Amino acid sequence: MSKEKVVLAYSGGLDTSIIIPWLKENYDFEIIACCVNVGQEDDMTEVKKKAMLAGASKIYTEDVTDNFVDEFVFDALKANAVYEGKYLLGTAIARPIIAKTLVEVAHKEGAKYIAHGCTGKGNDQVRIETVIASIDPTIQIIAPWRIWDIKSREDAIQYAEERNIPLTVTREKIYSRDQNLLHISHEGGHVEDPKNQPNMKELLMMTKTLQEAKDEPEIVEIEFFKGKPIKVNGKEMSGKEILSTLNKIGGDHGVGVIDLLENRMVGMKSRGVYETPGGTILWYAHSELERLVLEKDVQHYKAQIANKYAELVYNGMWYSGLKMAFDGFIDKTQETVSGKVKVQLYKGNILSAGMESPYAIYNDEISSFGFSELFDHHDAEGFIKLVSLPFKIKAHCLGKEYLDKTFKSKEA
C-alpha cells in the first residue's frame, strides 16, 4: 500500500531544511518538496539537491515569477497598497501565489496534506493557510512550528547540526530572510531589538548603503498604461524585466530601504529591515501619475481604500470578497492612469522630474494666478460665503459667551 503524500513548501532555508527529517521522524509520509520561484536568487539545482539529500522523494521547482509580477505585484501597485505607511508588502504579496502553487502540486500528486515552515508567531502561517482554505478546504495542514519542541532558531540550528544538515545561517548571523523579485526582508539577530541600529553594510543584499550609492543623480522615465508599467526609459519590457531593471537602478542609488517596527496581525510588534528598490520607484511614480489624472474625490477616496487594501493583503485576505470588490473599484480608477513619469534618484531619495498624460486634468491657464475664462476671481466671494455659512449660524445661535469661552487664549 502506497504512503500518504505531503507537499512541503520548501525553500532550502533553516526551517524547511529541518522539516524534512522531522516529518520523516514523526510521520509515515512520502515527502514532496515544492520550491516556488518568485524571483529569489537561489540556485535551484542546489535547492533540488539539498531537498533530495534531506529525504524528499521528489521536488518541484515552479517558476511563477511572471505571474507573480503581472497578477499580484501590479495589482498591489495599482492600489498604492502600503502597510502602516512604509511597508510595500513584498512578503505578503508573494504568499498567495506560493500557496496557490502548493495546492496545484498537491492536486497533481494526489496529496491530502501540505506542510509549511511558518512560525506560530508570524503572519505567513495565516496567509498560506487562508489561501489554501479558499482554494481547497479539504487539504489538511501540518505546521511543525506549532507542534514540535524546537523553540528558537538556535534550537533549529542545533537540530540541523545533530543530523548533519548543511546550513547557510550561523549563530552569529542568524537573520531570517525572505526574498522575491519585489523585495528582501531581514529579521532576527540584532535587528529584533528596536534600540539597535541595524548594520546596513552587513544586512543589505539588493541595495547599496547610502555611503556606497552613486555620487551622481540619475533620471529614470517610466511609462504606464492603465496603471501598469510598460516601459522604462522608452524601452518596452515585460513586468518581470521592468522590476528587475528598476531593482538594479534603484539599488545602485540606495533607494527603497526601510526600518520598520510593524504590528503583526497576531497582535505583537516585530522589527525588520526591508529592501524594495524597484518597487519603491514604481509606487512613487504611479502615485504621482494618479495626481495628474484622477479627479479630487476619486484620488482622496482611493487613498482611504489603499490603507484597508494594504491591511487585507498583509493579513492574508487576498481572495476575500472585500479585497476582490476593491479590485473592481481600483481597475475602474486605472482606466486613465496612462502616461510617462520621470523621477530623479539620488542617495536614497526619489524626486519628481516631470510627467505627462493624454488624460491629464491639470491646465496651467486655469490653475495659475492669472486670468482664465473658466474661473473668475470674483466667483470665490460667493463660494466662501456658502462654505462659511454653517460657522456663522453656529456663532449666532450660541452667542458671545460661548465664543469667548471657546476662543479665549490659554493662560501660560
TrEMBL record:
It catalyses: L-citrulline + L-aspartate + ATP = 2-(N(omega)-L-arginino)succinate + AMP + diphosphate + H(+). Residues 175-393 form the Arginosuccinate synthase C-terminal domain. Gene3D superfamilies: Argininosuccinate synthetase, chain A, domain 2, HUPs, Single helix bin. InterPro entries: Arginosuc_syn_C (IPR048268), Arginosuc_syn_N (IPR048267), Arginosuc_synth (IPR001518), Arginosuc_synth_CS (IPR018223), Arginosuc_synth_type_1_subfam (IPR023434), AS_cat/multimer_dom_body (IPR024074), Rossmann-like_a/b/a_fold (IPR014729). The keyword Oxidoreductase does not apply. One of its GO terms (molecular function) is argininosuccinate synthase activity. Its main location: cytoplasm. ATP binds at residues 9-17, 117. Its EC number is 6.3.4.5. GO terms for biological process: argininosuccinate metabolic process; L-arginine biosynthetic process; urea cycle. Keywords: Amino-acid biosynthesis, Arginine biosynthesis, ATP-binding, Cytoplasm, Ligase, Nucleotide-binding. HAMAP family: Arg_succ_synth_type1. Belongs to the argininosuccinate synthase family. Type 1 subfamily. This is Argininosuccinate synthase. It comes from Dethiosulfatibacter aminovorans DSM 17477.
